[in-house]
Amino acid sequence: MERIFVTLLFLATSCLYAQKYTTKTGVVKFEASVPSFEEIAGENKTASAALDTATGDMAVLALMKGFRFKVALMEEHFNENYVESDKYPKATFKGKVTGLDVAKLTATGGSYTVSGDLTLHGKTKKVSDSAKISKSGDKIVVTGEFEVTPAEFDIEIPAVVSKKVADKVKITYSFTLAK
Amino acid sequence: MKKKLTITLAVVLVLGAAAAYVYYGVLYKEGRNIAQEAATHTLPAAKLVETYTTNQQQADSLYLNKTIEVQGVVTAAQDSVLTVAGSVFCSFDQLPDRASLNKTVTIKGRCIGFDELFGEVKLDQCTIKP
């Protein structure tokens, strides 16, 4: 009951904040391919993101089960052995865009520093990158990429496959946010 | 002589079959086909959301990664997404029929978890049950 109330309260406040831009179909990709070995990549097309343009606060949530792979076995290993998605079903990011001014956003876009906490596999790490933010019509488009290592999030890559999995995992994201 | 040849042939065949099995059956096996799977749970969309908002861990243990069917009114339709009962987010691999908007439907999909940002339960690889 209390949780329902909190959810309602959250919804009510988010309605009041007209500066909030959101999407439920954000794209988050990760790639850990090593040249000349099989491509290791997954894509999540149903990530949620919210950007408060008044404060620059940004929140992203990607459900781990939502990452899809070309190879079914790879998806199985990702879920069961690496990110343990039954135990840790989501990855979240909570952070801030520095110096965001909606009035100054252009169609070609500019670079902004996005920094905050990335939580996945039960571990939280500070991440920071340079995102490209542009405005197209009444929508705000945020794209960027950064690198993390599996070790930072306590994800162990077995020695047998460690040559085929890159040390640095590249994460790219693209959010088309609407009011 | 002939016997030797038969044995060699048999060995080659068995090895070939084993290699093919490992290749197609293990390494490159087909993924799940949610549209073909039978649902493990069938429930009203509102009940699914209620279960998640009351106790996420328990709801995850019941529904996460399972093929489920939810019933409810389609409250929003946008691109490949239908929203049922305001808070079950159903994403489709094939564009869903927009005519289902405001109608009561049964949607089958894989439950991928709860999104606290919007207070929604998300399903992927959805199909509308006729």
From TrEMBL, chain A:
Residue stretches making up the Lipid/polyisoprenoid-binding YceI-like domain: 20-178
SUPFAM superfamilies: YceI-like (SSF101874)
InterPro entries the UniProt entry points to: Lipid/polyisoprenoid-bd_YceI, TTHA0802/YceI-like_sf
Source species, domain of life: Bacteria
Database matches in PROSITE patterns: PROKAR_LIPOPROTEIN (PS51257)
PANTHER family assigned to the protein according to its UniProt record, in alphabetical order: PROTEIN YCEI
Listed name of the protein: Lipid/polyisoprenoid-binding YceI-like domain-containing protein
Biological source species: Flavobacterium akiainvivens
TrEMBL record, chain B:
Protein name (database record): tRNA_anti-like
Species of the source: Flavobacterium akiainvivens
Pfam families: tRNA_anti-like
